[in-house]
Amino acid sequence: MRRPIPDYEEFSRLLQELVESVPPEFLRGLSGVFAVREEKRDRSLADVFLLGEYHERADGKYVYLYYGSFLAMGWRDARKFEREMRDTLLHELEHHWEEAAGLPDLREEDERRLEGFRRRGGPRRRRRRVAAGPTWLVARAVAYVLAVLAAVMALGFLLERLGM
Kind of pairing, strands 60-66 and 32-36? Predict the structure, then answer.
């Protein structure tokens, strides 16, 4: 028998569990991860629901997952729903890591995807994404650490050249 799709309270609890499963060093600098009851649509494409967002604001850096948008996707399988929650959280955390490292890659990829939706007048039927597992998480963390090290080395080189 299929498990039912989580209600908002269960969604919030599952999101908290997902956040707690992420190593603390990957959450460094993040002010919070929040479940939002409402759906969120793209401003220029009413057919496109945003499952999550990463925001840098004056008061901190935040990740939001939109319960209403997950419901709007029409998933009937709780496992698929929960897998998408995990994938969305990891996607938004990747934004956090890349922004911290000064890398715009994922933001640019998301913009290209939305621009494609705009040109086509909406999204295509979504293909199954490869689940982001521990190997992916480690690879992203290594990329982040390498980017930070490169920035520190460049700064050291610059300071040395300036005689500081």
Answer: parallel
